[in-house]
Write a structure and sequence with these properties.
Blueprint: E1 2-5, H1 25-41, H2 43-54, H3 65-69, H4 77-95, E2 102-105, E3 111-118, E4 121-125, H5 134-147, E5 151-155, H6 166-175, E6 179-181, H7 185-194, E7 204-206, H8 211-220, E8 225-226, E9 234-239, H9 245-256, E10 263-268, H10 271-285, H11 291-301, E11 302-306, H12 310-320, E12 324-328, H13 332-335, E13 344-347, H14 353-358, E14 384-391, H15 394-411, H16 414-429, H17 436-440, H18 444-448, H19 463-467
Parallel strand pairs: 1-11, 4-5, 4-7, 5-6, 7-8, 9-10, 9-12, 10-11, 12-13
Antiparallel strand pairs: 2-3, 3-14
Helix pairs in contact: 1-2, 1-7, 1-8, 2-7, 4-5, 4-6, 5-6, 7-8, 9-10, 9-11, 15-16
Length: about 475
């Protein structure tokens, strides 16, 4: 791991982290070709890529429903119990995120609010092939279902035998996945985004994947919603003298074993402690079954930051803006208020990041590569859309129309002002005032832009008579 020493008063800057945030152009170009081919040729293109990249020739992409229904049969009961516990706690956490539609009424009767509507269909990408990620299934499917999404579709690469890992399948059953297609890579993302003969399109795509999957999500974004373009996983451990070097070493390794490109950061004020952590890594990695991957990550992507004091250390953490942050500090909760940028924060020595990966409840799909400065963990909010609701009364229209007209005049938008002005004219002069004959003879520029920026309702206007007893016909629309 490389070491960055900060002198007193010196602050860590992002350039020192040497992040590789941009997807390689050759991967983006390849993904763009795949997306275009699938969009143009549908199932035929997907089938060709499945043979080329996965080495599997499938008669049908869709997994039969009976296989999903029987997913839990024959599995180790201890695994099923662990999966059920994880699913329950993930669901309980995300149920607290559910947002209700809301409405409020102003004194003049104008009603404003937000209508919350679940997406109709969501697609979740789950890495597969040689690896199994049942936790990823739960973390993506459960918040979608909690949000009220009716159709949750899972895509995942088939294994060499043309099947799906039974662990992944079990998670799909417990997570409420409705359809499963054995397709992976950029071609799966394209199929979800644009649809094929056998894979109907979705409204949003979530879930992690390799660089080709990330590039494909970036390419289809705008034609379909996506959660994020995720980079390699990362952890940052902020540790003081109370931390145990061997435990910190294990926590760094827990991230490093994901991927040779996984980034691991240790921030401390004690250089000797950092050396003890490195020595601990040497002891532990010798027995790791993923030693090669772990060592490559730590050697090439690992960084130690030695700060002059804890305040500088906390600022260094905010500069890193890590996906996962562990606070191995005596006053961990006291430091929480100073943390501005982190995807998930694990407070105190007992809060191991792998607990969050699997069973704690909060989502493990998190912003990477410093995007925690402005992005959020995957949540129920990703699977709903919000519609503003605006319903004016005659009184409300007369209150807001003059300001609308003046602002429209300042922007040179004549018809914007006229739209409000004609409604105002109905209320102030009666319906005949907006007849074709009346308006043809009027100076409409003076109607639209009357120069009364602070005008209010004329005294004596009978709103009930002008608008009808129920006030119908003058509800607001877009200005």
């Amino acid at each position: 791991m490389k070491t960055i020493k900060l002198a007193p008063g010196e602050r860590l800057v992002t350039n020192q982290l040497n992040r590789k945030g941009v997807l390689p152009q050759n991967i983006v170009d390849a993904a763009r070709d795949i997306v275009a081919n699938v969009r143009a040729n549908g199932d035929a293109a997907v089938c060709d890529y499945c043979q080329r990249f996965d080495g599997v020739e499938l008669q049908s992409f869709r997994l039969p429903q009976e296989q999903i229904d029987a997913a839990l049969e024959g599995l180790d009961p201890a695994f099923v119990a662990a999966l059920e516990k994880a699913a329950r706690q993930i669901r309980e956490f995300h149920q607290r995120e559910v947002e209700q539609s809301w409405f409020t009424t102003r004194a003049d009767g104008t009603m404003l609010g937000v209508k919350v509507t679940p997406l109709a269909a969501a697609g979740i990408y789950v890495p597969g092939g040689r690896a199994q990620y049942p936790s990823t299934v739960l973390m993506n499917a459960i918040p979608a279902k909690v949000a009220g999404v009716k159709r949750v579709v899972m895509v995942t690469p088939p294994q060499k035998d043309g099947l799906i890992s039974p662990y992944t399948l079990a998670a799909a059953k417990l997570g409420g996945v409705d359809e499963i297609y054995m397709v992976g890579g950029a071609q799966a993302v394209a199929a979800l985004a644009y649809g094929t003969e056998t894979i109907p399109r979705v409204d949003k795509i979530t879930g992690p994947g390799n660089a080709f999957v990330a590039a494909a999500k970036q390419i289809v974004s705008g034609d379909v919603g996506i959660d994020m373009v995720a980079g390699p996983s990362e952890v940052c451990v902020l540790a003081d003298a109370s931390a145990k070097p061997m435990v910190v070493a294990a926590d760094l390794m827990a991230q490093a074993e994901h991927d040779p490109l996984a980034a691991c950061y240790l921030v401390t004020c004690d250089e000797q402690f950092a050396r003890e952590v490195e020595a601990g890594i040497d002891i532990l990695v010798a027995q790791s079954p993923r030693a090669e991957i772990t060592r490559a990550s730590l050697d090439n992507e690992g960084t130690i930051v030695v700060a002059a004091d804890m305040a500088a250390a906390v600022e260094a953490v905010n500069t890193v803006a890590p996906e996962h942050l562990e606070l191995h500090c005596k006053d961990a909760m006291g430091l929480l208020g100073g943390i501005r940028n982190a995807g998930a924060i694990f407070v105190g020595a007992w809060s191991s990041e792998p607990l969050g990966d699997y069973v704690a409840g909060p989502n493990h799909t998190l912003p990477t590569g410093g995007t925690a400065m402005f992005s959020n963990p995957l949540s129920v909010e990703e699977f709903v859309k919000r519609s503003s609701v605006i319903c004016y009364t005659p009184e409300g229209l007369l209150s807001d129309a003059p300001a609308t007209q003046r602002l429209a005049e300042a922007e040179g938008l004549w018809a914007h002002a006229l739209s409000a002005a004609l409604r105002r004219r109905v209320l102030e002069r009666g319906e005949d005032a907006v007849s074709a004959e009346s308006l043809a003879a009027a100076d409409l520029t003076k109607v639209a832009w009357p120069g009364d920026a602070v005008a209010t309702v004329a005294e004596g206007v009978d709103l009930t008579a002008a608008a009808g007893a129920d006030g119908a016909g003058v509800t607001g629309g877009e200005a």
